[in-house]
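Z., the sequence and structure:
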Amino acid sequence: MKIKEIIPILEEMAPLGYAEDFDNVGLLIGDAETEITAVLVCHDAIESIVEEAIEKKCNLIICFHPILFSGLKKITGKNYVERAVLKAIRNDISIYAVHTALDNHQNGVNKIFSDTLGLMSPKILIPKQSYIYKLCTYVPANAAASLKDALFRAGAGAIGNYDMCSFTSEGTGSFRGNDASNPVYGTKGTITYAEETKIELIFENHLQSKILKALFQNHPYEEVAYEISKLENVHQSIGMGMIGELPEAMHEKEFLLMVKEKTGTGGIRHSAFLNKPIKKVAVLGGSGSFAIKNALQQGADAFITADLKYHQFYEAENQLLLADIGHFESERYIKNYIVDYLTKKITTFAIILCERNTNPVNYL
């Protein structure tokens, strides 16, 4: 298998279109035509991980955090990013990052975080906006069913737990071809009236090119009439963070001790105890201070995240138990998820979980 052949599998797990605009995901280093020998999965693709890949004869590293986040003007080995990039290039090792593409996935980082804490029926905390589009097209009535099937196969018509969703209406279309036309129905130069079906379906933004390809390949007309519009609807299945409930309410201190044990953190920084039971819990793996207001708005009793600054603890407003468990700890199980996912999909080469701990934070 070449790298370009594993990319669609990775995009099934973490569609690059789900990533935040600020992020840098996908194939960061390497040639997509390279044959894969083995894959090493890690959290951070730093120099020691590249060395582990060399030792284990892996020529593709799949990492959570992108080692290349902002642009490099020089690659001289003067810092940890440049050293990792140099070592990877010198040893023909490719690097692919998933980061917020997997953060925003309904089965990704925050679902794993929620499951780790035993939250029931977790839902997206901050659903993604401006990501749902609608396709509207017109087709002869006798071709409507086959066209819809092709669009469904391309990913259109999925809404939450449902797929193959569409709306159709009947009407009469008219057209007249010029001398250069080659109409499927009617005669060039003569106005033609045809019984047509209007098909409307929604789709996720990152699928647009695939949807249009299916439309053009399966529509019988020489010229396809269609329109695409962006909807204001939020996408309830994609977004940052999750919120759910514990099976039973817990005392605040008891709850934090449970979080500490489940996540393996060396310490928890938290806001003042409010002497109220913890039942509804919001989580966001990684840096999540921006979601404090969302946790409050949705009535969470506790919000577990990382990288909180001093003044941000005040934002709990004596209504919420706010806890910082550490960046790595809040995402620590994602590499295991990637290994499990790829192992089920690929049997032609090894998918290896890295052994080195890349957490840069230590606790006394």
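DSSP finds eleven helices and 15 strands in the chain. The CA atoms of residues 198 and 237 lie 27 Å apart.

Let me know what you think.
H.
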